[in-house]
């Protein structure tokens, strides 16, 4: 409930600090932290930024330092915190040194991001700090995921997450709060309500007095406190932390304050009425605590001056250390995009000091040949309770279930979350039986909240688990685009944090699902470094690639084609059956034309190849299996062998992966070509529903046959 004495902005409740003091040592610690935060940010904004030594933006917390300082000391050392961009006190109190922070702002390799990010966009898992990103409110579902991990791991660990009033207008705010409420997670939500979202005042962003009222509908305590009273912030936060640790669930604390600067160092805040600055200057949190301690003789003026002198020396030394530190080597920009060295980015050829030699295609090993020996399976019926194992026959869907089952048996860190996956077993029954086998802590039904679900998976991964998210239809992954492309994909590069999550779901057409249940979305993510993308075409690969994805230390998107679920059947690989990510495979040998494809289109390519063989045209079919990273060696070797190539995919033509493949071939295998590279793909429209329209939309066997004949005649 919101405390009844919550007032409108600027009319904050009366402090109790004059009635109950905290232990002297704690209050002196907070006073020093407040002054260190203020002085360090002054150095950043008023000196280094104005000298041009800090590029981009500088966002400071002048006037609202009491929120970060008062709250951070209320958490235990083992708790995990997710600060935002006006929470410098959290970083300092958790042990990130001023020298390291200034190295970060100055873009030096001594900073926690080693020059990869700026402002205070960073984290450190050893300090139990999770980095935020510029997309506000993204860390709220992530914090819920950390809280979920605490419950699964049976740890008495609480997570605190910070955000501003502006962030409460975003969907991830609501999805994060709802997940924490429904699952009764140990999360403390701390809102820095400084009354302005950039230049927009509070009354223009919400129709209620504040964020605490906005959160009332989620069924857990919300309260509003004086954010300029560091002692009151501490007390309220400590109560919320103790409540969370004892199993009482989440709390939202709205700390009302005022931003005594512009949004960033470049902003003069001319839109703020001057009288507001004058009013809130009298409520300065540092002056307030210092005055209280002096009045109560907890500290002397000489002791305060000694603290200030010590802080000034510390910051001077930190700046000197940071400025002496080297910049990162330019080539280091290529590293740490992925966990495995083979997946680090290659240096761009136009940056080479001398002309880069073309790959020696004749020295490349051909992709292994694995012909498909699958037969049509009954398109009806559900998967059995116990999935097939290695060496047994299975449908494509059963191959996926087998991988989930076996990986959950082998690794207790693996768990599943998604809509309707537990009791119901998933929209396509892929997860049927897993709830009974592994229980509700590892097979978790979620609200309809794709961004929140993926955010929670990210948080759980940061806490040491290996989540597998099911999208009911892969089309709905667009709702989680921000979490995937900005949080999951960039975390390792920005601050060295692994995000080992898998997001899987049914893609593709052929089932008359219409525009929102039939898309192939791989092109949405192909331009995002840090993600891996796989698309199996057989039952064995469905099992083997999913196993590899779950064990991978990077975020993996696993696109399973729903048309194949019960229409193909094959023998699962013996034993563990892992299929390495990044390796293509030949499904048919040929000498005249290469078809590069993946997913359900593999079968259309094979049907076309069989028809062309009757004309004496031998077609090679290369199943890419992994779309990022591509098996470039296998692609070039196939093109060199046949000298003619068709790029076939079910996604729409424009912007599809075929364009990237064509560029690779043009750059590295142009001299081997005897004919133009040809693309065959879906037409550039949304996926239509009616059968004749969808049949026209999708690439057909006849299309492939016609283009192949044209290439041979060229």
Percent range of helical residues: 25-40%
Total helical elements: 23
Shape: elongated
Radius of gyration: 29 Å
SSE topology:
Layout: H1 24-48, H2 65-72, E1 80-82, H3 88-93, H4 98-105, H5 139-152, E2 159-164, H6 171-182, E3 187-193, E4 196-197, E5 200-201, H7 211-214, E6 222-226, H8 230-245, E7 251-256, H9 274-281, H10 285-295, H11 301-324, E8 375-376, E9 393-395, H12 396-410, E10 414-418, H13 434-438, E11 443-445, H14 450-462, E12 466-470, H15 481-488, H16 491-495, E13 502-507, H17 522-525, E14 532-534, H18 539-551, E15 556-561, E16 568-571, E17 585-588, E18 593-597, H19 601-613, E19 619-623, E20 626-628, H20 632-642, E21 645-652, H21 657-668, E22 678-682, H22 691-697, H23 701-713
Parallel strand pairs: 1-2, 2-3, 3-7, 6-7, 10-11, 10-12, 12-13, 13-15, 14-15, 18-19, 18-21, 21-22
Antiparallel strand pairs: 4-5, 8-16, 9-16, 14-20, 17-19
Question: What would you say this structure looks like, in words?
Answer:
- The chain is elongated and about 100 Å long.
- The protein is built from 23 helices and 22 strands.
- With 714 residues, it is an alpha/beta fold.
- The protein starts with 23 loop residues before the first helix and ends with a helix.
- Strands 11-10-12-13-15-14-20 form a seven-stranded mixed sheet, sandwiched between helices. It has a five-stranded parallel sheet with strand order 1-2-3-7-6, with helices on both faces.
């Amino acid at each position: 409930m919101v405390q009844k004495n919550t007032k409108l902005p600027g009319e904050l409740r009366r402090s109790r600090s004059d009635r109950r003091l905290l232990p002297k040592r704690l209050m002196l610690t907070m006073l020093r932290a407040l002054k260190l935060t203020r002085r360090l940010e002054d150095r950043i904004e008023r000196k280094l930024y104005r000298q041009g030594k800090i590029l981009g933006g500088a966002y400071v917390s002048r006037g609202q330092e009491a929120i970060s300082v008062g709250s951070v000391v209320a958490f235990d050392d083992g708790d995990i915190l997710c600060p935002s961009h006006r929470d410098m006190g959290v970083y300092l109190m958790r042990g990130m040194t001023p020298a390291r922070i200034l190295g970060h702002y100055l873009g030096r390799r001594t900073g926690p991001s080693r020059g990869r990010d700026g402002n205070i966009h960073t984290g450190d898992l050893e300090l139990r700090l999770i980095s935020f990103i510029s997309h506000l409110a993204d860390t709220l579902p992530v914090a819920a995921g950390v809280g979920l991990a605490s419950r699964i791991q049976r740890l008495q660990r609480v997570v605190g997450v910070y955000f501003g009033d502006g962030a409460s207008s975003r969907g991830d705010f609501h999805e994060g709060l709802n997940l924490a409420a429904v699952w009764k997670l140990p999360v403390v939500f701390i809102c820095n309500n400084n009354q302005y979202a950039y230049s927009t005042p509070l009354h223009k962003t919400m129709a209620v007095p504040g964020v605490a009222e906005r959160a009332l509908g989620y069924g857990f305590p919300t309260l509003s406190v004086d954010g300029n009273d560091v002692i009151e912030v501490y007390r309220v936060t400590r109560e919320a932390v103790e409540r969370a640790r004892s199993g009482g669930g989440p709390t939202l604390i709205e700390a009302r304050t005022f931003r005594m600067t512009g949004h960033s160092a470049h902003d003069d805040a001319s839109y703020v009425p001057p009288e507001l600055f004058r009013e809130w200057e009298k409520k300065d949190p540092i002056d307030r605590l210092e005055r209280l301690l002096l009045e109560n003789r907890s500290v002397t003026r000489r002791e305060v001056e000694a603290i200030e002198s010590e802080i000034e020396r510390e910051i001077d030394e930190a700046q000197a250390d940071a400025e002496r530190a080297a910049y990162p080597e330019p080539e280091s920009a290529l590293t740490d995009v992925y966990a495995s060295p083979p997946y680090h980015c290659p240096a761009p050829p136009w940056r080479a000091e001398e002309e880069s030699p073309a790959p020696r295609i004749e020295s490349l090993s051909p992709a292994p040949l694995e012909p498909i020996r699958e037969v049509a399976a009954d398109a009806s019926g559900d998967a059995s309770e116990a999935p097939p194992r290695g060496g047994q026959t299975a449908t494509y869907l059963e191959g996926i279930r087998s991988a989930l089952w076996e990986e959950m048996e082998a690794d207790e860190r693996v768990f599943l979350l998604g809509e309707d996956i537990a009791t119901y077993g998933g929209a396509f029954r892929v997860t049927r039986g897993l709830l009974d086998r592994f229980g509700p802590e590892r097979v978790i039904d979620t609200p309809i909240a794709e961004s929140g679900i993926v955010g929670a998976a990210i948080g759980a991964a940061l806490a040491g688990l290996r989540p597998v998210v099911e999208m009911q239809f892969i089309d709905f992954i667009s709702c989680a685009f921000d979490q995937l492309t900005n949080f999951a994909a960039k975390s390792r590069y920005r601050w060295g944090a692994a995000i080992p999550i898998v997001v899987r779901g049914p893609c593709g057409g052929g089932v008359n699902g219409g525009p929102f249940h039939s898309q192939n979305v791989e092109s949405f993510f192909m331009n995002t470094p840090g993600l891996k993308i796989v698309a199996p075409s057989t039952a064995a690969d469905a099992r083997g690639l999913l196993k590899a994805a779950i064990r991978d230390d990077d975020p993996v998107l696993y696109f399973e084609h729903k048309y194949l679920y019960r229409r193909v059947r094959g023998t699962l690989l013996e034993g563990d059956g892992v299929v390495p990510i990044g390796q293509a495979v030949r499904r048919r040998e040929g000498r005249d034309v290469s078809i590069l494809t993946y997913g359900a289109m593999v079968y259309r390519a094979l049907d076309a190849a069989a028809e062309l063989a009757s004309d004496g045209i031998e077609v090679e079919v290369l199943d890419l299996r992994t779309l990022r990273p591509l098996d470039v060696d296998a692609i070039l070797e196939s093109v060199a062998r046949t000298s003619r190539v068709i790029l076939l995919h079910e996604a729409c033509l424009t912007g599809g992966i075929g364009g990237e493949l064509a560029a690779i071939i043009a750059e590295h295998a142009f001299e081997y070509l005897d004919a133009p590279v040809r693309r065959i793909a879906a037409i550039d429209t949304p996926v239509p529903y009616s059968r004749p329209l969808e049949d026209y939309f999708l690439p057909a066997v006849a299309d492939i046959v016609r283009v192949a004949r044209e290439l041979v005649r060229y």
